[in-house]
Amino acid sequence: MKIISFHLMPYRPLDFEEAAKHRSAWVVLPNSLYDPVKGAEEYAAFIDFLVDAERLGFDGIGVNEHHQNAYGLMPAPNLIASALIQRTKKVKIAILGRALPLQGNPMNIAEEYAMLDNLSKGRIICGFVRGIGAEYHSTGVNPYFSHERFHEAHDLIIQAWTKTGPFPFEGQHYNIRYVNCWPRPYQTPHPPIWIPSQGSSETVAWASDPARKYPFLVTFSATDLVVRYLNPYRDQARQYGYEPESGQFGWACPVYVADTDERAKAEAGYAIETLFNNYLRMPMEMLVPPGYTSFNSMKNFFKLRTAVASGTKPTADSLIASGTAIIGSAKTVRAKIEEVRDRTGLGILVPMLQFGVLSDELAKRSMEKFASEVMPHLRD
């Protein structure tokens, strides 16, 4: 199993009482609530945390892209990746989310990834996403064209990495007379591509296609939903005529490890509640804007995610019970992860070892226990 230490980089000094006066922690939250001095300290602490994962033996460290929110301070994950490259030697750097449809010119992404791949001498993993609904409010991109723009941008980037330029690319959304990627990627034919998702059937069918066979990472889901989303990927692959490998199945989730289950909940319970109830707070029209997803996928989303559909606030107890957050002793955390692995063939785990307002001290202690008491068992 490959294990990637992932970080959202939330703005922990957020005044929750003041933020609650606004309808979301995304898009409309006034940037007057951001203190640059405190924010600079947060960036430094978070980068130190990710760098330390190399010493502890993680296979990779992960970052992603979000815009205009307190949930994740990474509007340009390529910049964070560049800083991580300079402070690490061997660990993979997974940029698990560049939102392709939000780009006016996807060649910028092709060039940035290729440059980072050269700077790291082949340590980059590319995560391609559409971006959650709120990103379309932030950028003004029409969500109705999200799927079209994603697929077209993907095709352009792959061609830019693998074909000799210059050549023209003509699509419905992107038309470029000269496609000629300088520099070319360090890895051949290009860096690995992973697809983080919340389980849409269209994404499963596209990612598992024999022409791609991209690893599919389920995010922010209860363990039963993880199984229900990963196993259809296997079924779809078999319909295509091949047996998928374990490295095509991934799961990203918050994880906290302490000496006992009780201590883990006491230390991390409030932090996990802030992640879901404060930082992820947004009205439904931001989460799923009209046209963003197909009608069937939207129905399944609300059917399976009852807390989202009902508008109820999850508690630490409910998040732990459902497996949406894996919080407990090393034995408990191992058992919950192994259960999903046994039911799905899971080959990639992306633990979010800092979440919400969880302090640096607690996050580091948990990461060290995870590395010493959980990770070796998963690899064995």
Q: Can you give a write-up of this model?
A:
- This protein has helices at residues 16-19, 36-55, 77-87, 107-119, 133-139, 146-162, 201-207, 223-240, 261-279, 284-287, 295-304, 306-310, 316-322, 330-344, 360-379; strands at residues 2-6, 60-63, 92-99, 124-129, 167-170, 175-179, 193-197, 216-219, 249-258, 326-329, 348-352.
- By secondary structure, the chain is of the alpha/beta class.
- The strands form 2 sheets. The chain has an 8-stranded parallel beta barrel, surrounded by 8 helices.
- It is globular.
- The protein contains 15 helices and 11 strands.
Helix segment count? 15
Low-confidence stretches: none
Helix percent band = 40-55%
- Rounded mean pLDDT is 94
Q: How many DSSP E strands?
A: 11
- Biggest pleated sheet: 8 strands, parallel, barrel
Could you give the order of the helices and strands? EHHEHEHEHHEEEHEHEHHHHHEHEH
Strand content: 15-25%
Shape descriptor reads: globular
| Strands in their spatial order, largest beta sheet | 1-2-3-4-7-8-9-11
Distance between the terminal alpha carbons, to the nearest Å?
9 Å
**Rg computed from alpha carbons, rounded to a whole number of angstroms:** 20 Å
The class by helix and strand makeup works out as alpha/beta
Task: Describe the structure concisely for a colleague.
The chain has 380 residues and is of the alpha/beta class. It contains 15 helices and 11 strands.
Write the layout of secondary structure elements.
Elements (H helix, E strand, L loop, with lengths): L1 E5 L9 H4 L16 H20 L4 E4 L13 H11 L4 E8 L7 H13 L4 E6 L3 H7 L6 H17 L4 E4 L4 E5 L13 E5 L3 H7 L8 E4 L3 H18 L8 E10 L2 H19 L4 H4 L7 H10 L1 H5 L5 H7 L3 E4 H15 L3 E5 L7 H20 L1
Parallel strand pairs: 1-2, 1-11, 2-3, 3-4, 4-7, 7-8, 8-9, 9-10, 9-11
Antiparallel strand pairs: 5-6
Helix pairs in contact: 3-4, 4-6, 7-8, 8-14, 14-15
